[in-house]
Amino acid sequence: MEASASQSVRPVTLFTRLIFILSALLAIIAGIQLYILTDNTD
Amino acid sequence: MLLLAVSEKAWANIRIVAAAVGTFVPIMCITTALHLDRFHFEASGPPLVAAWAWMIVYITVPFLLLAAIISQLRAPGGDPTLVAPLPTWLRGLLGLNAAISLALGLLLMLAPQFMATVWPWALTPLTARTIGTGFLTVTVASLQFMRENDLRRGRVGAFSYALIGALQLTAIARYSNTVLWDRPASWLYVLFMLGFLCGGLFTAYMSWVQLGDEPRAVPA
């Protein structure tokens, strides 16, 4: 739904920003683990 | 992509990120659950820590993301006006990308052993499903990009396409001796990733450089 002229644009909340930063850090950790955990022998 | 999204101000501009992460993490959690025996929970030292770190990531992030989406939907306001509707050719490319990625994702998830016989490199069921999870994520991101129908809202995603292509091609070059070059799929995969790289770079150029901070319409 587009915001009308009198309506504000829905912002990115501080909570979402924090979750995204935390998720990014966790994703970096997971990416590093991928090389450790994957066993290509079977 | 997540870190780029943090700098955006409008929720509409990061919905593609939420859709992509919201697809990747839960499916990766399922993939992990399907192959728990491949993880080093019986080991000690770093492998055990790594196994638990992996599990914690894929169990916690879906709930964190769900909480973030709920907080966004409760926030007041609407979407910004469309800045630069996607050119028809770009919508076509995104649709093609989504269709190919969906086919690859489903095959890798549902028939990993068959895919191992045609894939450019050796696959285990776990690695096949992990790659399949990535392709299903790309599918959802491309569909969401088409749904948003705005270069400005796809800005963060555009950069990610280029990054996927660049990283995949780098990995293939780095480990080229493990790629089965006698399989046609190897060359098709390189072609597909070149498409990611070139399409991503061009779309990123249009949405970051050409559009700028004071956007103007891009001709269709």
Describe the structure.
The complex is a heterodimer of chains A (42) and B (220). By secondary structure, chain A is mainly alpha-helical. Helices cover 57% and strands 0% of the residues of chain A. Chain A is built from 1 helix and no strands. Chain A has one helix at 14-37. The model of chain A has no long low-confidence stretch (mean pLDDT 74). With 220 residues, chain B is an all-alpha fold. Chain B has one domain (2-210). Chain B is built from 8 helices and no strands. In chain B, helix 2 (15-34) packs antiparallel against helix 6 (125-148) and helix 7 (155-174) runs antiparallel to helix 8 (184-210). The longest helix of chain B has 29 residues, at 46-74. Chain B is globular, with a radius of gyration of 19 Å. The two termini of chain B are 26 Å apart.
Question: Topology, pairings included?
Answer:
The complex is a heterodimer of chains A (42) and B (220).
Chain A: H1 14-37
Chain B: H1 2-6, H2 15-34, H3 46-74, H4 88-110, H5 112-116, H6 125-148, H7 155-174, H8 184-210
Count of helix runs of chain B: 8
Alpha-carbon distance between the two ends of chain B = 26 Å
**SSE pattern of chain B, N- to C-terminal:** HHHHHHHH
Q: Mean pLDDT of chain B, as a whole number?
A: 91
Q: Give the N-to-C terminal Cα separation of chain A.
A: 49 Å
Total number of strands of chain B? 0
In summary, what is this structure?
Chain A is mostly helical and 42 residues long. Chain A is built from 1 helix and no strands. Chain A has one helix at 14-37.
Structural key phrases:
heterodimer; A: 42 residues; mainly alpha; B: 220 residues; 70% helix
